[in-house]
Amino acid sequence: MHRPLLIAAALALTGAALTFAGTALAQTKSAADGIAEYRRMLEDGNPAELFEAKGEDLWKQKRGPKNATLQACDLGKGPGVVKGAFVELPRYFADTQKVQDLESRLVSCMATLQGFNAAEIAATPFGRGEQNNVTALATWVAGESRGQRFNLPQGHEQERKSYEIGKRVFFFRGGPMDFSCASCHSVDGQRIRLQDLPNLTKNPGDGVGFAAWPAYRVSNGQMWSMQLRLNDCFRQQRLPYPGFGSDVTVSLSTYMGVNAKGAQSIAPGLKR
Amino acid sequence: MKNSTPLIASLLLAAGCAALPSSQDLDREALVAIKAAFRDEGIAKINRIQQDLGQAACSSDKQPTDAVADQVMAQARAGVKWPTGGQYFGDWREGEKLAQNGRGMTWTDSSTAPAANGGSCYNCHQISKQEISFGTIGPSLYNYGKNRGVGDVMAPTAQPIVEYTWAKIYNSKAYSACSNMPRFGHAGVLDEKQMAHLMSLLLDPKSPVNQ
Amino acid sequence: MQTRREMIAHSAQVAGLLAAAGLLPTAAQAAWSQAAFDARTLADATKALGGSAPIESKDVTVTGPDIAENGAVVPVACATTLPGVKRLLLLVEKNPSVLAAVFDVSDAVDATFSTRVKMGQSSNVFAVAMMADGKVLYAAKEIKVTLGGCGG
Amino acid sequence: MADPMRIRAQAAGDKTTVRVLMNHEMETGQRKDTAGKTIPAWFIQEVTALHNGKTVLTAQWGPSVAKNPFLQFAVKGAKAGDKITINWLDNRGDKRSDEATVT
């Protein structure tokens, strides 16, 4: 059976639905207020603090085959400089000749300074073994730039290229549900269920989007770094599995980080 | 950097002044990066990054040209499969459950069969008034049938909206080339029965949507 | 080699056996009121703690959000300004075991405690004050738990 | 051994507000793992707080307390430089004790 579709009639009727969307918005104002109240109540005492403390210990601890600390690690502002490093990542590193985000850079330092096997760590599932330590380290390093404003360097050709690749990844549609990052994050003021969706094609504001991760997820009681955040975004997009520290995840971070220029970092944040 | 690189070029590189590849080259490089970065995990196989015409056309911050958009919509309309035996409707209660259910098709799900999937409708739409946790990416569907004057869903006057709604659920791109909504029938996310339940949720006068 | 999960399961079993045989250190056992935490209603929980039937009172406060974005972590607090309070309790009516926490109030602390509880579904949350004179007073607040995220 | 707690104790006027974050799974015993096996209950049962070595609070918790628990209370008469100690004991007999100085 194959009948013609009466598009015109259907389109005419869509107008009515839009009018009603306005009413719906007004009715759920109180729900949004309720959620805001809930989030405020959780602000004091973010369990991310537990991971910050662990990360700081790990930074100063002699570990790995070389029994060394990470205190000589160059996160972009010189060996051992932690404060302010997070809000300038991802950036280009001459020694690895790559644009790296915080976590892939930490893994490089763990490899060169402590003698860990970088490929092995990258292949370790989130939440296990050394990946847990990378997350804790990233949480602490991010926390050391709390209150600072994002200002990713774009001077190097590779940094500008990373931005351009990241932008294309952001808009890449695929999978059985046709989702891209842009499906949910390219318009102001939208939400999924009751969760606000930051518009990541521009600076979404202080402490929003890129400026809120790593974050403690209350829904599962886990600390999530940006790599895991993006990994789960791709899972929800119904795409296959992105490699840890791959060009796709790092360039996406460059795209979001550059767009967030001037946004104040509140990381480590607290999320649903 | 290779030794053979002329000094002037290396100076430019060091200063970060080298020109970026062209936009088309960057498009190609992005696809190469995507192919290299993703791997199979569970039911989420690498072939999911292979784009069809519509996915590729709607993968930038610019809308496709009218000609391409028309082609995407025409293909989508031509591919809509109408329900077997004209069974457009099911049970709105089952439809509500599907609308609430946002699961399925991720690498942590064990099967791609429609039975394992939800419709994820509340993620993006207001639907019944009782559910306050709804998204706003799509328009409100509250009173969807009522606003369109649907009383008896079997009445001939209801036929156009019944068909429009079925086709929209089956392949949202039939009406909008870059619609954010999944193509539930086309992509095999939901089966005919499940789509019929969603039809009832939206159009049945007894459904909470139309109260 | 045992995995961590197996070890956890194993030690839990051992603990269970020891507990059944009354072999666990008494410090860990004596103070924790099994019967109260097994209770399925507010009245049963207070009864198991040696209290009388609970009466609603304006002098007891329960604080929490109207809506919880996620039931896994819901900030709640209990308080009273009444003198002679011995214990403050927090309960979640629709959880499998209603009692969440018992705080013994001493002269050295304010009778105000904040913590975070899990809620399986929208429910009343109770704050209960058990008084020196045997009275049991309570306050209730409904907290809605919403479904969130992409659902997966 | 369990990871350390985070304790903040801040004096204001004649009392000190204590905020504690504890590292603990707080497993309810109601959940199943991916293989369908029930994950055994594992949660903090007892919490005690001491001010300069003297017990000021004892609490009993059930599995309804959220993972990585948070606790806030106020100690009367505690002032800057005083010690606040928090102990917990879980249903498997694991325990942890941490101390903070009032600021």
Would you give an account of this structure?
The complex is a heterotetramer of chains A (272), B (211), C (152) and D (103). Chain B is mostly helical and 211 residues long. Chain B folds into 2 domains: 8-63, no CATH class; 84-210, Orthogonal Bundle (Cytochrome Bc1 Complex, Chain D, domain 2), CATH 1.10.760.10. Helix content of chain B is 39%, strand content 1%. Chain B has 9 helices and 1 strand; from the N terminus they run H-H-E-H-H-H-H-H-H-H. In chain B, helix 5 (92-100) packs across helix 9 (192-203) and helix 8 (159-170) crosses helix 9 (192-203). Chain C is α+β, with helices and mostly antiparallel strands and 152 residues long. Chain C folds into 2 domains: 1-32, no CATH class; 33-145, Sandwich (Immunoglobulin-like), CATH 2.60.40. In chain C, a hairpin with a 6-residue loop joins strand 5 and strand 6 (99-104). The longest helix of chain C is centred in the N-terminal third of the chain and has 17 residues, at 4-20. The radius of gyration of chain C is 18 Å and the shape is globular. The two termini of chain C are 33 Å apart. In chain D, the strands form 2 sheets. A 4-stranded antiparallel beta sheet of chain D has the order 4-3-6-7, with no helix packed on it. A 3-stranded antiparallel beta sheet of chain D has the order 1-2-5, with no helix packed on it. Chain D is elongated and about 55 Å long. Chains A and C meet through helix 2 of A and strand 3 of C. Strand 6 (99-104) of chain C pairs antiparallel with strand 4 of chain D, so a sheet runs across the interface.
